[in-house]
């Protein structure tokens, strides 16, 4: 019988390297942000460069509540697969997945657009389709407002070509 007491029998023996790389990337992002602030890049612009990861402030069945974003930018709730964007006086909630083949979308701040990393489809901040393999806009989620709270209904999904009027109306105006 072989003695295995000195071996790492954990199911993820290589995770330490992944965690080390992830930590390095996170520290590098913080240092880059600090450097940009140091050379005079406004905080508001810096906030738009990287999506803010958020969590809901409440939930009732399929309706998830968020605070209205204070400024233009992108917020992502990965647990509920929601993108919340405040852009030029409106707030819109999107499904996190690309409508083409469900890959998670990402925000490209320098171009003010969303992109699917799988097939490089591009979308405007309001979710309209620009180019790529997808042939339609991002899916919008049902959204309503009560005071400073945005309510997003995860079961109400509007597809732009099937429900153009409802897709366009699925936004709230903010000052």
Written overview of the protein:
- β5 and β6 form a beta hairpin.
- This protein has 175 residues and is α+β, with helices and mostly antiparallel strands.
- The strands form three sheets. The chain has a five-stranded mixed β-sheet with strand order 1-4-5-6-13. A four-stranded antiparallel β-sheet has the order 2-3-12-11. A four-stranded antiparallel β-sheet has the order 7-8-9-10, with no helix packed on it.
- It contains three helices and 13 strands, in the order ααββββββββββββαβ.
- The longest helix has 24 residues, at 15-38.
- 21% of the residues are buried.
Provide a compact summary of the structure.
By secondary structure, the chain is an alpha+beta fold.
Q: Estimate the helix proportion, in percent.
A: 10-25%
Q: Could you spell the SSE succession in H and E letters? A: HHEEEEEEEEEEEEHE
The major pleated sheet works out as: 5 strands, mixed
Note the total helix count: 3
The share of residues in extended strands comes to 25-35%
Mean pLDDT: 81
Structural class by SSE content? alpha+beta
Give the beta-strand count. 13
Strand order of the largest sheet: 1-4-5-6-13
The parts where pLDDT drops under 50 for at least 5 residues are 1-20
Radius of gyration in whole Å, from Cα?
20 Å
Distance between the termini: 72 Å
What distinguishing features does this structure have?
175 residues, alpha+beta, 4-stranded antiparallel β-sheet, 3 helices, 13 strands, 21% helix, globular, disordered N terminus
Please render the helix and strand layout as text.
Elements: H1 15-38, H2 43-49, E1 52-53, E2 58-60, E3 63-67, E4 73-77, E5 82-87, E6 90-95, E7 106-108, E8 113-115, E9 122-123, E10 129-131, E11 140-146, E12 149-158, H3 164-169, E13 172-173
Parallel strand pairs: 1-4
Antiparallel strand pairs: 2-3, 3-12, 4-5, 5-6, 6-13, 7-8, 8-9, 9-10, 11-12
């Amino acid at each position: 019988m072989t003695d295995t007491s000195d071996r790492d029998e954990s199911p993820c023996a290589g995770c330490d390297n992944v965690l080390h790389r992830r930590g390095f990337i996170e520290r590098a992002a913080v240092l880059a942000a600090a450097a940009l602030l140091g050379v005079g890049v406004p905080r508001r612009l810096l906030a738009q460069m990287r999506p803010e990861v958020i969590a809901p402030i409440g939930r009732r069945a399929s309706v998830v509540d968020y605070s209205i974003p204070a400024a233009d930018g992108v917020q992502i709730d990965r647990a509920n697969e929601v993108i919340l964007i405040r852009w030029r006086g409106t707030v819109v909630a999107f499904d996190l997945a690309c409508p083409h083949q469900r890959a998670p979308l990402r925000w490209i701040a320098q171009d003010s657009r969303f992109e699917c990393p799988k097939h490089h489809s591009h979308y405007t901040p309001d979710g309209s389709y620009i180019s790529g393999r997808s042939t339609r806009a991002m899916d919008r989620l049902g959204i309503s407002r009560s005071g400073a709270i945005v309510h997003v209904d995860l079961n109400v999904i509007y597809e732009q070509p099937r429900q153009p009027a409802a897709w366009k109306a699925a936004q709230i105006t903010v000052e």
